[in-house]
Amino acid sequence: MGDQSFNSLALISSRYTTTAVKVLIELAAAHIFSLCQALDLRAMKLLVLHSVHTEFNTEERFVHIGKSMRVTIIDYLTTPLDPLVLEEMEALVMKVTLLLQEGWYSSMNVYLDHYDASPILGTALKSIYEYVRKTLGIPFLHTARILTPIPYKASSN
Q1: pLDDT for 109-146, tens place per residue?
Q2: Could you tell me the residue range of the domain that residue 9 belongs to?
Q3: Is 69 helix (H, G, I), strand (E, B) or coil?
């Protein structure tokens, strides 16, 4: 009779242990998936920065930096300025804004079509990333994929 109660407790304990292990596995999988998402976002950011960086040579960048600082300074001035100066500054702001938006959207579209953060990763992260993205075939999750789920076919990248 004593063995039966002991066996029942052991069975209950093993069931809860199995449940705990399943929860731990799901937490680890969610963490690894989040890591891959973060790596993809970092790769997208670097792609955008690279596309914008190549748009300006060094001299042009310094000119634009100086002009952008003038806009900040003028925001704090209380005396009226020449309207022509303000128009030129507004044109500069619009040009830089359009350049950054264009770089962002083109880089984002390229990355979403052919995403791969492997080139910017070290050895350990690269193996985890490639296992999740290529071996398991889990794609980069973004708004378009959430709104319109498309069956994912692992590419031979």
Answers
A1: 777 777 788 888 889 989 998 999 889 988 887 766 55
A2: 2-147
A3: helix
